[in-house]
Specification:
The chain is of the alpha+beta class. It is built from two helices and four strands.
Length: 105
């Protein structure tokens, strides 16, 4: 799986990048058809928002797109929440019925 990590107006630590790559690559086990993942980190500028670190993840592959956006006090908590949401979405995608397969009488 090809993983790209970017940030807006902040520097990402090497440990956060390594943790993000490790956790996103584990999601490849749930759905092998996902070929690409983009992870974007940025910080909310509004001082009244407590959870300022925002993490957006977009996964694409085989015509399917899975996206999530979460906010947390720090980047590590944000990626953990994002992984939890993505696991749920990928499980739904994997177990979704094909539809329109009916026996004709």
């Amino acid at each position: 799986m090809e993983i790209s990590i970017s940030s807006r107006n902040q520097d990402l630590s090497e440990s956060l990048q390594a943790t993000t790559r490790r956790k996103i690559s584990r999601l490849g086990r749930l759905n092998r058809r996902m070929a690409r993942a983009e992870v974007h980190f940025y910080e909310e500028r509004n001082p009244r928002i407590a959870d300022r670190e925002v993490c957006e993840v977009l996964m694409e592959g085989d015509g399917n797109h899975v996206r999530c956006k979460v906010a947390a006090p720090d980047g590590y908590a944000a990626i953990d929440k994002a992984i939890e949401k993505l696991e749920h979405q990928l499980h739904k995608l994997k177990t979704r019925s094909g539809g329109r397969i009916h026996a004709r009488v």
